[in-house]
Amino acid sequence: MTIPSGMSAQVMVGSEVTHGTAVTPNRGYEFRSESLKLEVGRIESGGIRPGVRVQRSSRWRSGRRAVAGDVTMELMTAGWGLWWKNALGGVVTSQPDEPNAPTVFLHTFTPGTLPPGLTIQVGRPDKGATVRPFTYIGCMLRQWSLSAAVNELVTFTASVIGRDATTATALASFVDAADGDPVPFTEGTLTVGGSALAVRSFSMQGVNTLADDRYFLGSPLRAKPEEAGLREITGNLEPEFDDLTAYQRFVDGDEAELVLLFQSGIIEDALRFETRITANVRFDDGTPNVDGPTMLQNPLPYKVIDDGTLSIEVEYQTTDETP
Q1: Is residue 48 assigned to a domain?
Q2: Residue 84 lies in a domain
Q3: Domains of the chain: total
Q4: Which of its termini does the chain have fewer beta carbons within 10 Å around, N or C?
Q5: How confident is the model over 238-253, as pLDDT tens digits?
Q6: What's the per-residue H, E or C state across the chain?
Q7: 214-223 tens-digit pLDDT
Q8: What range defines the domain where residue 159 resides?
């Protein structure tokens, strides 16, 4: 029985072959919240007419259309390759030990050409217990973020822009993207420059600089947003003030390798579900200020920098044959 509240909501996703051409969503994701919506511009006349004090019904038209919003989810041990692929673009799939662990697949994601887009359908229950489908077409990740903190699950937020929306598409039956589990903070470790670093929290945000102004005469719909600038990946670490190592690295402008690893249960032959992020980073602050009598914190904001060998790499080890 459908519950007439957000408890019966669902998110389904499908990978488009051609940008803006809808596909049937076939992968369901558990989610915490969403803010996807269709934006429709209004074009109003500025003409002056004797005796008219309020805009007339015949003097405005609907204008350009666009989709924007976020979907916040919990990182899962399986089914997440789709999001990393749409966040970064490049992917290579391998099997670490095919003879002994044929069900284990390693997907390695790096900055590359972004996929054509996604069809995202949100099922929103009304008070009469009918789940109303809102289908968003031509969705691309303009931004993404990953965050982890003490006593929390790791979360991932996809910030999308899209081409159009419809409520005419039938509600897709919810099917889990994969049989995965959420990832808690207790399964994470972090190193900087090869040394372990104990942190209270970690965050990383990526921005894909997409040309979102590609509107042309004759259509209210935006052409595919192509990349139009460098990608920017930034974040923050929150360790305690241990010594001067982090501060000196900031002052000297020394780049370092950052490795964030989340290891979950064993899949097969001692190979585990893993999400490993390796990045070459520059730290843009490292000052441990005093804020009362408590232990000093040493916030470390960072930016991913391409040193010619490495910028960022996400290795996702799971049971999915394809991302």
Answers
A1: no
A2: yes
A3: 1
A4: N
A5: 999 999 999 999 999 9
A6: CCCCCHHHCEEEEEECCCCCCCCCCCEEECCCEECCEEEEEEEECCCCCCCCCCCCHHHEEEEEEEEEEEEEEECECCCCHHHHHHHHEEEEEECCCCCCCCCCEEEEEEECCCCCCEEEEEEEECCCCCEEEEEEEEEEEEEEEEEEECCCECEEEEEEEECEEECCCCCCCCCECCCCCECEHHHEEEEECCEECCEEEEEEEEECCECCCCCCCCCCCCCCCCECCCCEEEEEEEEECCCCHHHHHHHHCCCEEEEEEEEEEEEECCEEEEEEEEEEEEECCCCCCCCCCCCCECCEEEEECCCCCCCEEEEEEECCCCC
A7: 999 999 999 9
A8: 6-40+63-213+224-318
